[in-house]
Every structure is written in C-alpha cells, then in structure tokens.
Amino acid sequence: MTKNLLLIFAFLFATISIRAQYVNIPDLEFRTCLKSKYPSCFDNNNMMDTTCSNIVNATTLNIASWGSIVNLEGIQYFKSLNSLYCQHNEITSIPSLPSSLLYFDCSRNSLTSLPDLPTGLLYLNCSDNLLTMLPKLNEVLGVLNCYKNELHCLPSLPKSLFNVFLDTSFIHCVPNTTDATFYNQGTTGESWKYVIMPICNSSNNLNACTVTSSISGRVFYDNNVNGILDAGDCYKADIEINLINNSEVYNDSTNTNGLYLLKPENLNNYNLSVGPLPDFYKAIPVSTIIDFTTAGTVVKKDIALQSALDNPDSLFIYGNGGFSAGGSYSILIPGQTSWYENGAINIEYENRGTTIISPIITLNYDSSLIRYDHSSTAGVNNNGKSLVFTEPSLAPGESKIITFYFSKDSSNGNPTLDLWNFVTTASIVNNSKGNVISFINQVVGILPIKLTAFNAHKELDNSTTLSWNTTNETNAKSFVVEQSSDGIHFNYEATITAKRQNSNTYNYTLKELKSSTTYFRLKMIDADGKFSYSDIVKVSLSNIVNSTLEVFPNPASKWIKVRISATELRNGSVRLFNSEGGLVKKLLLQQGVQTIDVSNLTPGIYYLQTIFGSRKIMIVK
Question: Are residues 125 and 159 in the same domain?
Fold first, then answer.
C-alpha cells in the first residue's frame, strides 16, 4: 500500500513539473513589475511559470516609466504579445522578442543594440538610446522612430514605411527609395521638421554607409504618351514586377502609389519584366536588362502604361452598402415616434480605359419603401425613382467614390436591405435582396464592351481550357471557337450558344491540341447576323510531361491544399488568377503539401498557374 502511494505521489509530482515550467527573472525590477501584474504566475520563491495562461495569452505589456529596469530577460515567454511599451527605463539588454509583436516602444533607455525584429512588426520607436546601428528592418514596418542615437547609417528601408523620424545631423542619406515621409528631430522636445532625404551616392554618402543594390520606380498611366511621369498622371496599383536571372526570381507588386522595390542579392545581370497588364494597355518598357554586377547599384526606373488599342472606353464599378437600425423620429401624429433605419450605398468607379470619359451613373430605387436623403457629392438629380449622377471628367486610371444616403421606416414591416458587394465592367448589376434597391444595366456615355476577358489556360494533363467573360450580350447569338497552328489560318472548333444575360462567364475545354503551339480566337455572332472577332490568344505545350501538381478539395470554400511531386516545380512560383485574368494570390512552391487560404475570395472560377500549366479551381460558399 505504501509503495503504491509513493508511486502515485511520484506520478503526480512529475505531471505537475511537466505542466509548470518555472524560470528566474534575473532583473529584480522587471521581476517585481511582472509579479505585480501577474501574481498568480509566480511561486513562493519568486519564480515565474512560463506556461501560466496570463503570461502566454497576454497581448499588451506596459512597463513604461517603471524606473530602473535594466534587463528584459523573460519577455520571450510572452508568446501572444502584440504591444510592448518599455520606454523611459534604464534597459541595456533585450533578448529575442516574441514573434507576435506588432508595436514596440523602447525609447529613452540605454540600449546599444537591438535584437532581430519580428517579421510582423508595424511600429518601432527606439529613439533616445545609444544605438550605433539598427537590425534588418522587416518588410511590413510602417513607422520607424530612431532619432537621438549614435546612428550614422540606416539599413535597407522596406517599401511599407510611411513615417521615419531621424536626426539629419548624423544621417545624411538613405539607402533606397520608399514612400516614407521623413522628419528631422535633433533633441527630445524639438519640433518635427519635414525633410527630403536623398538616396545615398558618391557625393552625399559622407559616412560611407553600405548601400543595398535595388531597383525602384512607379507604374503610371502615361496619358500624353511621352514616357515621363507628369503631374496629373495616375498611379497603378497591383502590377507585378519581376527581376529574373536564371534560377533567381525577385518579384513585387506596386502599392497604391504605383511604387515597386526589388533588392537583388547577387552580382548579376537581371531581366526586368512587367505583367499581367491592365486590359488595353502595354508597358514601356515591356522588359529590359538591369546591370547589378557592381555592389551598391541603385536604379530608378518608372514604367509607363500606354494604350495598346485604338482608345477603348471601359468603366469598372464596385458597390456595397446596407441599412442598420438608427434612432427615432416623429411621424404623422405629433409626439408619436417610430424606429427608423438609415443606410448608405457606396459606388466606386474607375476608368480602366485609355481615354478621358464622362460617365453618367443611374441608380434606381423604390420610393415606396425607402427615402433618398442626400449624397456625398453635389450634382445628383433625384426624380423620385432614380438618382442620376454625371462625372464630368475621369482620367485613365482615376477612381472616385460617391455615397448615396437613404432612410426608411422599419415599423411597417419593410424588409431590411442587405446589399452584397458586386463588381462589373461597363454596367451596374442588380445584386440586392428583397428588391428594395435595384441597379440597372445603364452607364450612359460609355461604349459597351461585349468581351471583357479571353484567356487560354494549359492544364497539367495537356488539355486546354478557354475562358471568356462578357457584358451587355442581350443581342448576342453565339460564340464560335476557332483554332490555328500559325495564327493566320483558322479552323472551326465548336459553337457555344450565348446566354444573353448582362454578365456571363464561359469555359470550353479541348482534350488534345493538334500542334505544339496553337492559336485561338472567338467569332462573336449577334442575332442580326453581324459578327466580330476577339483578340488572339496562344498556348504552347511543354516538353516536360512528368511534372505533377495536385489541388484538393476542388470545389473549395475556405482553403485548398497543393501537393507537388515534380522537382522541376520545387521553389517555383505559383499564381492564382480569377476568371478575368486578375492576379489574386502568389506564393513559392515547396516539396510536399501547402495550404492556401481562399476564404476571402468571391465564388467563381480561378486558375492556379505554374510554369508548366494551370489547374482550374471552383470557389464556392
């Protein structure tokens, strides 16, 4: 019996020891501070339990102005920490920081160095210390405050920076282009002063700072076709820029200000390429060789988007909105009140054509159910059933938003409006519940474009899928698929009957191609017999036939898994396109199985594309 009790006691002791892991916090002041905040996480010997839920799950730790904390050893056990405020102490040493950290303020201490920064850090204030250098800055950092240190040089700056606070009496130049706004402050309490920081070169690099090789520039709509970024030219976001040398691939997508930034790591010549491009546009230059054979080479190259067709018009529209419970107001009988609901409909419109346009946007509404109040922009004409707004001038690439405000009495049983997000080209579509508000297919002044996208995707089983999107095809009869081996002489392949609705998506699959390179076009036939041809798309068969890529589940709603078994695909780029050819995701393939989050994608057909072909994926909700 005694033996059994001893065994039970030993088992329980071992279980408790495994569950709790106690460590000593060497800095007395830091230990006292933590114990005051998390008393249940310390034992009688002042040892901290690193598995304590209050420690593990803490998201914010504020120990600012505690007074005399010197060492932050122990902070690494705060596994969920998002914000750490430890300014105005006497800290000289910081261990590795929690990987979850987003905001870090360690200003007004005695730090001579910083640990590696977490990859997700958004804000860093390390001002008023004794720092002589900064660690590598992560690629999502937005704010850097580093004035009043012994800093003479900055590391490579990420494209994500928007504010940098520094002391220009020490720092004279920056290593690369960013969209950041720079401010100078020499001493604590001094007013910030906006400054323009030049890129380091042989004449201004007085401190012999190391400069990282980089290329940067802006992608813009070149409205006057002069190849120069002029005042009034609009920037283009989400354009992919690639820098390639054999197996090396660096890529970036432009931000809202059209900026891209690439930093090659080796001394080589690289090919700079652009794409996919917006419909109707070409890039100048399309591709070019960049010489990075000398360390510290900094290149600035803007990319102009110029019309590739004869001045097509195209209007992209995005809408969302709905109603929510508001307050109360008097109706009919004085003193009698009823709950009302108010709501707003936002319509964002963008000129995706190549000419200046003046679109007229019409929004129909049912005045028996809802009441129009006002809009965010003057000049809206309300006739009691429709709201008509004329945009006087919209330049290529320019986008604007107009908001319409409504109210309705919710006491009479009227259904609550729930408007889903929608997108369309050259039309507004009906996408509401209960027909409280309807969007009619009318954008006066814009030339309708029947074919908004036409793509050919080579599948990994060597079949080919043609996909195309249309709008305003109410007069359409059919689409004839034609193929050619030389791009000149085309033969009949199939006829697809038109759906004759406002917006449609079509797909047609060919099991086997007749030549290594095959060209396709669509013959679009109207009900009156008139017809026109689409642009020509091309597909080339790969010589590699043993490469395999599996995608499952398909259809998918929240995620897809990608499995590769071909070494040729390992470390290669894979991109996910929507049915209109727009890039929505990109990642680097690894051997084995990877998971891609698709929960935020709208339902529809997508294409997962590798260097050898693509797989069609259906997203459902």
Answer: yes
